[in-house]
Design goal:
The chain has helices at about 45-55, 75-85, 100-110, 115-130, 145-155, 175-190, 205, and strands at about 5-15, 20-30, 35-40, 60-65, 70, 85-90, 165-170, 195-200, 210-215, 220-224. The chain has about 220 residues and is of the alpha/beta class. Strands 6-7-8-3-9-10 form a six-stranded mixed beta sheet, sandwiched between helices. A four-stranded antiparallel beta sheet has the order 2-1-4-5, covered by helices on one side.
Length: about 220
Amino acid sequence: MSLIKIEKIRKTYGKGKAATPVLRGINVAIKKGEFVAIMGASGSGKTTLMNIIGMLDRPKSGTYHFNGQNVNGLSDKELAELRRNTIGFVFQSFNLLGRLTNRANVELPMMYNHTSHSERKRRSSELLKLVGLGDRINYKPTELSGGQMQRVAVARALANRPSVILADEPTGNLDSKTGETVLKLLSQLHSEGNTIIVITHDAYVAKQAQRIIHIKDGKIARKA
């Protein structure tokens, strides 16, 4: 059974004459433990598809099953809870809070999940060590390089032991050497059994995945 199964998904922005179709009947299936890249140019619909997979947005029509559960009919609250417990996000712009320490940034998802203080402290330390930042636990993001900030973002994504790591252009703001470090980290997480989905326009980044899904003009162009 697929962990993620999307069928005939359509998404349109705007109404009436201003309506712009973005996704045009998308079908995607991703199994647990896969490393998949969704690749497309700017305007192809890949970010909209990512938002639907990540339960940040809802489709206009079609069905989305996550681990066998139809998420279409869930309330906003139920959707937020499912998203919080099953998906870890890594964004191109890091989305870290500069006023907080790295530890506090990693702890945030656990706070929303009502994890105890002692467990948050233990797990945040464990995760920052995992991404090679055990000596930067009490630093703030503003004191780090771009690659280090992205590694903090990966640690934060793992905080609630999600089923899926969803990475949106994870190397987009990094130089090639630093980007390579982040890609190796994602590959390591995949080898440990995590499901990884990378959204990218970069062919080199996409080639790190087991499988590439190409999207063009809101449709699946081909699957590799």
